[in-house]
Design goal:
Among the domains are: 82 residues, Rossmann fold; 65 residues, Dna Ligase, domain 1, CATH 3.30.1490; 72 residues, Aldehyde Oxidoreductase, domain 3 (Alpha-Beta Complex), CATH 3.90.1170. By secondary structure, it is an alpha+beta fold. It starts with a strand and ends with a helix. It has 10 helices and 17 strands. The strands form 4 sheets. Strands 12-11-8-9-10-13-17-15 form an 8-stranded antiparallel sheet.
Length: 358
Amino acid sequence: MKGRVLVAGFATRHVAQSAARAGYEVCAVDHFCDQDLVWCTKDWEKFLSLEDLPGAIDRICSRHHFDYFVPTSGAETLPPPVPLLGTPAHDSARFLDKLDTQHFFESLEVPVPRLLPAGEYPAMVKPRCGAGGWRNAMIRSDAEMAAWKELYGDVPHIRQELVRGIPASVCCITDGSRALAITANEQILRGSGESAYGFSGSVTPFVHPGGREMIALAERIAAASGCRGTIGIDFVVGKSGPVAIEVNPRFQGTVDTVEMACGCSLFDLHAGACFGQMPEQRPEPREVAVRSILFADRDRKVSADLSKFREFVADIPWPGTVFEKDRALVSVYGRGPTRDAALAMLDKHISTVRQYMR
């Protein structure tokens, strides 16, 4: 055993699995505590809202001694109860604010969407704080802007010019001053409804004429960020090239497809970088991997035990779990020698899973 790790945040399954496969003993504090999180952890604590997260961390720390603390979404700025394996809170905080991130990109002279004044449309409107893109929206008029505020409250937000292209990201490893891109990933977004720009999966690797430029930009951004370990840089890749969108100062939702496609351990790479040990070269993808998050089309109860499909399903709910409409149900995977082959396998697996979710 390499050490005992506490992984804490809103969703931790992807990080806990990576750490367990890398040879660490893992405990987790998580909002969902799905079956496959429990399978790979020694102990776990569940919490309902982020206000409850510090108390859940205190409870699990009262039961175990930990060597390292790894925060995921929602825990990035919490004081670490044991040595931190990741980005310090003051560095994470800058990238949890989209306006601060915008200014950071501008200071590096990285291509970034232009900030728009009130009344100029169309505009991509985003809360300054928040992850996953669930409240981001394209707004075309004052009336739509008023409706957005009515739905989400008049929260601090930014308004950016609309950039058309393919949503993508680069998974980077950084030790605080050096950075290496591990893979480029295509991001899958919901595409419709109130959460049209919410993250719902990834394809790794992302092969595109603008990929080389995007990777170079990502390495420059990551090296200047002050972050530690694995981080993600989000882009939109359009006709004029990649445009930087966000920095995720933590493990990303693309962990699964990165590890499947490249056969690497992101947790080992993350830990090494936190100790100043950078990989000499990026791993070569061996295949294409795709993850798709399925969402509830209505309020429903998942009565079937989906653990029988654990080879191509993750975030497996406990039988009898009730989901409200639009909540994430389960993740499904596909893989193959090409993007088309991986997507075809994904479709086959989704069809299989849906038979048990009526």
